[in-house]
Design brief:
about 60 residues; mainly alpha
């Protein structure tokens, strides 16, 4: 689903999922951290995009 077509509820749910995933990567040990670098970066990028959409909608 495209971020711009999500409902407010769906957007908040996705922000929560991405935020929890990023937190798990941040708490991982050093070896796991290196192994999951690309996944962690993708989650961070997704969370940034979701948060930007949330802010855009709430500033309109």
């Amino acid at each position: 689903m495209n971020i711009s077509t999500m409902s407010q509820r769906e957007l908040l749910a996705q922000i929560n999922v991405a935020s929890n995933a990023r937190r798990r990567y941040e708490l991982a040990d050093g070896n796991q951290w290196r192994d999951e670098r690309h996944a962690r970066e993708a989650v961070g990028a997704e969370l940034d995009a979701l948060a930007a959409e949330w802010h855009r909608r709430n500033l309109e």
